[in-house]
Fold this sequence. Notes:
Elements: H1 23-34, H2 39-56, H3 61-69, H4 85-96, H5 100-110, H6 113-122, H7 135-147, H8 153-165, H9 172-181, H10 190-203, H11 217-220, H12 223-243, H13 247-257, H14 262-265, E1 278-281, H15 285-291, E2 297-302, E3 306-312, E4 324-326, H16 338-347, E5 355-365, E6 370-371, H17 374-377, E7 394-404, E8 407-408, H18 414-424, E9 432-434, E10 437-438, H19 443-455, E11 460-465, E12 478-486, H20 487-490, E13 497-506, E14 515-524, E15 529-536, H21 542-553, E16 556-557, E17 564-565, E18 574-576, E19 581-585, E20 588-592, E21 607-611, E22 614-618, H22 630-638, H23 641-649
Parallel strand pairs: 1-12, 7-9, 15-17
Antiparallel strand pairs: 2-10, 2-11, 3-4, 3-5, 5-6, 5-7, 7-8, 11-12, 13-14, 13-18, 13-19, 14-15, 16-18, 19-22, 20-21
Helix pairs in contact: 1-2, 1-7, 2-10, 3-13, 4-5, 4-6, 4-8, 6-9, 10-12
The structure holds adenosine-5'-triphosphate.
Amino acid sequence: xxxxxxxxxxxxxxxxxxxxxxxxxxxxxxxxxxxxxxxxxxxxxxxxxxxxxxxxxxxxxxxxxxxxxxxxxxxxxxxxxxxxxxxxxxxxxxxxxxxxxxxxxxxxxxxxxxxxxxxxxxxxxxxxxxxxxxxxxxxxxxxxxxxxxxxxxxxxxxxxxxxxxxxxxxxxxxxxxxxxxxxxxxxxxxxxxxxxxxxxxxxxxxxxxxxxxxxxxxxxxxxxxxxxxxxxxxxxxxxxxxxxxxxxxxxxxxxxxxxxxxxxxxxxxxxxxxxxxxxxxxxxxxxxxxxxxxxxxxxxxxxxxxxxxxxxxxxxxxxxxxxxxxxxxxxxxxxxxxxxxxxxxxxxxxxxxxxxxxxxxxxxxxxxxxxxxxxxxxxxxxxxxxxxxxxxxxxxxxxxxxxxxxxxxxxxxxxxxxxxxxxxxxxxxxxxxxxxxxxxxxxxxxxxxxxxxxxxxxxxxxxxxxxxxxxxxxxxxxxxxxxxxxxxxxxxxxxxxxxxxxxxxxxxxxxxxxxxxxxxxxxxxxxxxxxxxxxxxxxxxxxxxxxxxxxxxxxxxxxxxxxxxxxxxxxxxxxxxxxxxxxxxxxxxxxxxxxxxxxxxxxxxxxxxxxxxxxxxxxxxxxxxxxxxxxxxxxxxxxxxxxxxxxxxxxxxx
Length: 654
Ligand code: ATP
């Protein structure tokens, strides 16, 4: 029981040294986490389980971490589950003597197919109990299922799922089915898994010698010293993961050399995409000067295309064969840009042996030498493009250099990175250009540069710290060291938001036969749920409504998921699985008794909703979990002048 207060990694584990970790040990851990709402307790439960794995079966640590995160490989390998619900229902029905309709109706009532699978399995007797599942075998089977492709693979997948399902005991069935669905939904964010790894390795430091007595630092060190060690491990593990987001690389080093060796062994590496640095929105040019009061900053044009992180590995010379282009989400986009890859050798001067570039790929008219809108770029084929068929040309605007010739530059100030960029790369009009920049020093200069950016078909400006500590590249962070200044913000229309489409209302009148309106949500990564934000019905052309009706029909589900937070008064006519992300604009944000976005963050039982939302465009480059977060919604709400002024005018009740 990993929730036990004084957990002993050997005595309290349900398996012995060298044995494969039973799948039940993991399922039980997930069950305890699911039943807990306190984050620290969740971390402790997971840390206790991980400690047993480190001590008893270290080779199962890697699959354990992946299974807790419901991942099969580093995210850039794009190996994902997400088996269609109907196949899972079929498998459950066939194994338990139920019809598909029965399973479907139970799932509709309960809202969680995992629990339906668990209950169905509990009431079913088997003549010969299959051997208990081990975590390693389940992980390998899930990988095998994810790798099966082609139409003939459906039956093979169902057979494999059935063979796992019939061997499930207790809550194993619940987590198996949820893993297969691609959503674990136990409220365990990646940051908590990293924190649990830090706590586990601080208490039971690897490498563990099986012959030596168990060292339990949580008991032998003073509480202050132990806390300091946990904090140190947490910092090392989280920083390492930012630079090298691959458990395949981190876990083996951690087990053989210990946490302290991570920074030396797991560094930024071409080929392993990092989570990009993100910017904070700013509403007024004067805020730029409030933020950078005493610091040097620069303004760059903010191009409206698709983020492209370009990796060129190499030792003595660049290895263009293995160059790769990753999206904002670390998706491998290399096959989308054969034209960009072909031009890479001309970009790098002879002084470059390897590099990682942060850029924006923008649709470009080579005849008029004009930047084209994002909508044009989005018509390019997403995968396996053939260069001869490419109709939309792109120009890549380079704004950062994160790695050069074997060394990470992320801790160097932007001033140096920018100089290195200009020293080592060749610009070529319409193919490779450095982001247009200006080191402004007055409000008027920024405003004028903003005007120029708009005339140059850009969205606005990015304002970046240029020198000093704040000018490093903050991997994976939405940082105040980068501010985005879009024209919309200045006009007071508000920031655009990226929201998830959860459902639709059937159209009437002119829109009969189509979806006429949609229910939108933000994402709360802490609670791992989608919280409704508003209904939307404006901003669509007739064609776009027809297209969305066709594409969204493929995502219709029978009932809302248990991780959709909504009020019954807004229940749509059809529900969708959370897939599509749309960018929307709104007049402002207001408190709402019926919507659930950011509930509890600004008001204990009211959410926040968007007033006068308008559709802007689809965001195919964003996953639903990367939609605007509940915290961002709360921040945007609180940043509104009307809210700030009324808070200032409120009588002091104390
Ligand atoms: P975010 O990425 O901040 O969540 P988003 O994806 O909706 O938001 P924006 O809010 O429009 O994008 O702004 C950030 C994006 O702007 C970057 O991710 C990058 O793709 C793009 N960009 C364009 N020009 C630049 C530039 N000069 N410097 C940094 N990013 C730029």
